Amino acid sequence: MSYSKEDLRDLYNGTLPWGQVKEIMSNPKDDDRFDKYIEILQESVLWEERILMPLGEHIFVVEKDGERITKCDCGHEFGDWRQNWKLNALIYVRDDRVKLEEIYPGIRCPDPDICEVREYYCPGCGALLKVESVPVGHPPLFEILPDIDVFYREWLGTPLKHEKEFKDRTYEVTREWGKET
Amino acid sequence: MDNGKETEIIACDAGGTMIDMVIVDKEGNFSIGKSATTPLDQSVGYWSSLCDAYEYWKIDLERESKDILPLVESAVYAGTGMLNVLLTGTGQKVGVITQAGDEDVLLHERARQSYAGYSYQDVLHHVTHRHTDPIVPRKMVKGVTGRIDMFGMEVFPLNEAEVKDAVEDLLDQGVEAIAVCLWYCFLNPSHELSVGEIAKAIIAERRMAVRVHLSHQLAPIIREQARLNTTILNAYAAEPAREQLVKIEQRLHDNGYQRPLQIILSHGGLSNVQYPRLHEATFSGPLGGLLGALHLAPQLGINNWVCSDMGGTSFDVGLITAGEPYMLREVVFARRFFNIPTLSMDSIGAGMGQFVTVDPLSKRPLIGPGSAGAEPGPVSYNAGNEIPTVMDCALIMGILNPDNYLGGKVKLDKPKAFSAIKEQCADPLGVDPYYFAEGITQLINNTMREHIRSVLLARGFSPADYCLIGYGGAGPVHLAGYSDGLPFKGVATVPWAAGFSAFGCAAVDITHRYQKSATVVIPYGVDDDFKMFMGGMMNAAWDELEQQAMGDLKAEGLPWEKAQIKPIAYVRYGGQMEDLEVLSPVNRIRTPQDIDKLLADFDDLYSKVHAGVAQYREAGYHIFEVGLMTVLPKIKPKLIKRSLEDKQPRKDAVKGERDVFANGQWHTAAIYDMDQLRPGNAIDDIAVIEAPATTLFIPPGKHVHMDEWSLLWIT
User: Fold this and answer.
1) Fewer Cβ close by (within 10 Å): the C or N end of chain A?
2) Is the domain of A34 the same as that of A106?
3) Interface touch A28/B122, C-beta < 8 Å
4) How far, in Å, CA of B409 to CA of B331, rounded?
5) CA-to-CA distance for A33 and A8, rounded, in angstroms?
6) pTM above 0.80, yes or no
C-alpha cells in the first residue's frame, strides 16, 4: 500500500480532509511512508544536510560531515544527537501560579510546589520546540534518543555509512559545565 | 413474450450508487434492473432502472408504458434518499430551539457519537474518534429557559420573551425550518407546544413559509440527543427527500401508473409520500430481505429464520424469532444517533467486492477493509481497479462464469483476475494461485459463519432452532460455505436471491408505528386498584398515539376506518436492561385482568425468546415505552406452490460442464440453468447453478433440492 506524496504532504500540514485522514489511520501502515515523509521534510528546509529522522515539528537528526547532529529547520545546530539538545535551547520555566495560570487558568492550574512547566525555544529562530511538565527540580527529559543505526539497518534494510556508538552522552555536556564552575 | 404485460409489483431499492429494480408479474416471474443513482433528480435513475428491468422481458417501456403501468398494483420504494441528503449536506437550513444550558448538545454529542458507526478496531483506537460536523451550526441553536421535570411537572415556567427573541433571531438568519426539542416533552409537551405556537405566530406575522417541527410529535422518547437528531433530520432532510419522491411518483403517473408510490419505512412499515414523519424512511434498503423472510415464514410454516444477505461490501444478518423480527429503537446513521424504530440487522464488512491483499510485514492474507464497490469493481471488470477482490477469487476457481455475469451484460476478464491474484498475493506467499483463491473463499466464509454464530449466541439462541436463508447477489455463491458446520434445521435460498430484498419490500402491508416513553411499574402481587391506575396511564398514552396515527393516515388520504390498530407495550422484568415488544391482547386496559393478560403474553414471549426458566415474575414488571401500530393490508407477491416433478432435472436445465477448483483439486462440475430447474429436482454432486443475477455453488459433498415453493435447500 502506498499514498501519493501530495496526500502525505497535506496530511503533515493538517490540510488533508478528515475522511482521508481517518482512512489512513484505519488502514495498515503504508510501505513507503518513511521515505516519502523524509523527502517531504527535506524539501521543506533550506539547508542541504540529509535528514535522518525527525524529533519534532521543527527539529531533526541530520548527517553533517560524517557526524550526526540535532538541527532546527531554521538552520540552528544543537550538537551531537546523543546529547540532550534541550541543554542548548532557550528555556522559559513556569514555576509559579501567575506564570502557570497564563496557560492553565483557574482550577486547571497545577500546584507550583510540585510541578513546573518548561518551554524550550530555538536560539536561532525562537520557535517553540518542546514543552515538558515535570516535578520541580527534575533534570530536563531526554525524550527521544533514537537508535538510528538499528532503525536503518534492521527496519529499513538500508544501513548508514558511518555507524555510530549508541549511547546517551548528555553527561559530557553537564560534566563540562561542572568544570566551568 | 407475454411476460410483464401483467406486472403486479414494481419494487426499487435505491442505494448510494445504484438503483436496483425488481418487477414481478402475476405468475411470480421477476426481472431485475439496475441503473446508476442520479442524485439531482432521482426520477431519472429510477426510470432508467425500470426500463432496464423491462428490457430483460424484451419490452421497450418508453413505448409501451401506457399499456403496462396502468395494470401495476403496487410500486414500492426503499432507499437511502434521506441519508444521502444528510451525507451530502443538501438539506434545508435548520434552526434549533432547545433547553437553555443545553445548546452545545450537538457539539458534545454525548461523547459516544464521536465513534458511532465505527468498526470495533476504530472504537478501540481513540485517535480515530472525532466529532461529526453538526448539521446545525452553533449560532443557529438557541436555548430557552423553562423546565419540566422527570415526572412531567413544570418546575419553572417557559420564558416566552426568550422564545420570541430566539425565533426572531433564527428567522433573521434565514432558516427554512425550526426544530424544537425540550427536556421531558414526551411526558408533558406543554412547553414545546407553546414554543411551537409562538414560532408559528411570528412566522405568520412575517409572512414566511418556515415549518416548525416539535420533537414530542416525531420521537416522544427519552434521551434528548437522539430525539433532537431525529427532529433535526425531519426538518433538514424530509422535505428535500419528499420532493424527490414526488418527482418519481409524478414520472410514474405521467407514464400511466395509477396508484400512489409507496415508501418502505425503517421499521418495516409502508407509507405514501405524504407521510408526515418521512424521516422514518431514512434507512430501509437492507431490510428488504428480512421483510421477504417474514412474508415467507407463515406460508412455509417456519417461524425461526436467520436471514443473511451478502452483497458487494457487507454481510448483513437479521433474526426472525417466533415469527417476529427484532426492533431497535435507537439507531446510528451517518454517525449520529436517532430515535427511529428500525429492524435490527447486524452487519460486518464481508462482501464479494472486498479487496484481497497480503500484509507485507506479517504475510497474512487480508480481506478488506476496503471494497471495490460497483465502480470500478473487481479486477475482472477491467474498469480501473488492479487490486484483486473476493469475486476475482470465485471467478478463477471456475465458480463464476465470465460470459454469463449479470446475464452476460458484464464480460469478466478471467486472465487479468488470475494474474492479479498470482502477482499480488500468491507469489509473495509462494503458493498456487488457485490454492490461494480457495483459501480466501474459506477465510471469508469463516468470517461470515462466525458472525452468524455470534449474532445467535449473543442472544442466547442455537442454530439448531433456526433455518438459514441466504440471498443477495453474492449470497448463493458462498451460502454452502458459510453455513457449513452450523447445525441449522435447514439452509435455503431462492432462485430470485439477487432480488430478494426488493421482493421483500413488495411484501409488506401499509404499516405505521408510533412510540412514546411511559413510566409504568407493576410490582409483584399488587392489588387491582394499582393495576388499573397503571393501566390508565397506558390507555392515555395509547389514546394519544391513536390520535396521531389517525391524523397521519388522513394526511396520506388513507381510510382510517379500515386500519387495524395494534397497541404495543415494551415490557421487561424489574431491574432488567432490555425489554421485549409485546402486542397487547386487548385494545385498552379496562379491567385488572387485561393487565394480567398482557403480562402473561410477555411471560410467554420471554420464555420463547429466552428460556422458560429465565422468567422472573417476582421482580415485577416495568414498561418504559408503549407503542401503537396501524396496519392496512395491501396486495403482496404470492408464493406459488407447484407440484413436484422428477428428481432428475430436465435435459434443458443442463447447460454443460466446467472445471471448478474445490478442496484443493479440480473437479468437473455440471452447470445448470436456474430458470429451468423445477420443484422436486435434486442435484447430488458438485454443481454450479447459474441465474442472470446470481450463481448458486454446490461444493463436493453437498446436495441441493428444490421444494414445492421453489426454495432451494442445501443439505
Assistant:
1) C
2) no
3) no
4) 38
5) 8
6) no
